Write the structure tokens for this entry.
Amino acid sequence: MNTEAKKQIWSSYQKEIADNNYYYARSCIRQNFFPASEVTFLRILREELNKNIFDDPNHTTCTGIGYHSDIVPFDTIQTVVARHFALMTEAGLENVAISCVTSFGMYTEILDLWHHFPEQLEKIREYLYKATKREFNIPKNIAHTSDIIYKFRNEIAEKAKHKLINVQTGEPLNVVEHIGCHYAKMFPTKGVGGAEFPQVLSGMIESWGGNVVDYPERRHCCGFGFRNYLVQANRGYSVSNTKKKLESMKPYKPDFIVANCPGCAMFMDKWQYTLAEMEGVTYDEFGYGIPVLTYEEMAGLVLGYNPWDLGLQMHQVQCEPLLDKLGIKYDPKAKYLDKNGNQMPLPEKPSCLKV
Amino acid sequence: MIDVLIIGGGIAGIETACSLQDLGYETVIVEKERTIGGHLNNWDTLFPTHRPASEVLEYYTEETRKRALTIYLNTYVTSIIKLDDGTFEVNTSRDVIFHSKTVVIASGYSLFNAERKEEYGYKIYDNVLTSADLEKKLKTLNGEFKTPTDKVPEKIAFIHCVGSRDEKSGNHYCSKLCCVTAVKQAIHMKQICPQADIFCCYMDLRMYGPGFEEMYREAQEKYHIQFIRGRLSEVGENADGTLQLKVEDTLAARPSKIKVDMLVLMVGMESPQSTALFKETCGLQCAPNRFIQPNDHHIGSNKTNIDGLFTAGTSIGPMSIFDTINHAKASAITIKNYLSRN
Amino acid sequence: MRNFGFTTTKSRTIDYEKIDTRLISYILQNEPSFNACLSCGSCTAICSAGNLTSFNIRKLSLQIRLGDIENTKLEIDKCMLCGKCLLECPRGINTRNVIMLIKKGLNIIDKNEI
């Protein structure tokens, strides 16, 4: 593998990422399944990087899941996105920081559509005005929140308490990076590093001391597939895609997986449990599964945040073996305490996957 | 005032100069490299006979010597200007300005830069080569053939149409020679690595020339090359440095996964940057494929939209050596007619 | 093993590392012209059996190359051995001999002799 040539490709896919003053567009899946990730993102931006970011209680789902499942019509999702732009405009902001990869894909696609079909933009302006009396400006800059962490990866590295290095061996950790399909496959120029060799997560991993695993099925979809997941009988497709990826990465003995898409992180984590229960297989050496982190959680660990504040206890594949490798101290007794220090009910143990 | 200024000292330029010299005209060749022969210098063997490329090169070196052709090496043309009296002023990278009655563009082609097909991992994965890289490797081969990662290959795949018939790469056209080159190289590899399984992944096999179809059949029957109809969609690298290819077997209508030790990308021909420059400086008309547009496809393929400005060889589109030489000879006759008329 | 109401799907991808080459090797050894097939389909267009059943000799030739022995067993008996494909083949492949070799090869495979 020649990394120089890879850097050559990366240099042709660098996009503009706003430096400050963001309107935060949250993600349905991220805030439900990785509940502390978004809080961590806000904390990093505000406390570590001194940035201004507005977390708006009036912001809603973009309806992307409904749209990709043929439930929400295209005009509807455009109007919902237009409302988000109106909220941004009302907040006096011009830059959107989008937490979800599918939302990011939708926003990008809608802006591209309006660019090519201005009459469609006028129609949506009218719909939004009729429904809400709101008006909006087109954002100046659209970035996925992983773009923003990427942009400030060196600043984060300077403040790092831990590197992505195995403290027992001194070797860099092997990290599988997974980029959500809607991040760059539709618009390669809108993703850092393009679609074939994306740099957005690789850049973070390398800046923080880890080794990026380049395995053959790296570009394959995680298998979420929206409509393929929603109907229970179809979920075989979804889990089979994840299985294909896990089988392909297994020989590289990855220490963890990091994804920039909330859906990908969720499926690659939870399907490991499903596969273990259905087929008795795990994809690490010792039967624990491969931990899956969001990039906010990865950044949080690097910055020395308490793993339980990062919500790692909410993951299916347990993170303790990874924390040990990173040399991160944690209190096992505090794992299932709520924020007031009260014991929460303990989760059931899976029958195959070790915890 | 020179009779004919020829841009390019490849096979096309040399053949045009030789033919014109024999007809009694004064010619000057301007060549940007430090030697004549163009791409042929980098080629090992030629289809369909597998003869060494050096034989053709030696022939033209000898013809050049015999006629004492005037050649300016290490010189490239910066502009072609047609003057009011119908003659040409040709400016170059050196302190020489040529005045000539006619100009021949024999500046050939450039090879498609395979890095533009990012998904094929050229220059990223060590064992991905282009057809041109393989020729160079074969030309300098000393002893056993080994892959770039120093392995005797057990599996090799050739990928047709890299940068050809591909609008994503900006090239909608067929490069015409890559199919037969792949078959030639596949046979060559089987001859020197008899233990290897060899695959050719193609969209259509365009065996248009004499001896080509025969070679294809020989590749199938005698050398057991496996032809898979399907275009490569992506390459990944396995932990052991082998490559994983994803190609649909379109005849079986199923996706397939092929593991190989070495991948050869059959890169197509593109119009060189110099053509765009000529277009700019003298209003030369180019076709949608960016090669020079012949004035008449059938009966005037050496003429351009500019009177007195002619073409020879691949400056008008992909051509084999056989076709290039014929086109160059035709160019000489066309120029003779032009000069005797004016 | 737990039942979630769905299962993993077997990959449809042909893995060239896992192809059963016993039958194709046997045929090619005894009828090398079979290598020259262009998949043009003229054999199939004229096939008496293909007119009435799903028998497709062009497809079968591909399946044999891809090592699908089970399906070949089911398909091969549909051939009526009329020999019209032999007349049509532009590459002059002895398709009749190929059919006979498929039958013989399958027998030998059944007996575990190859």
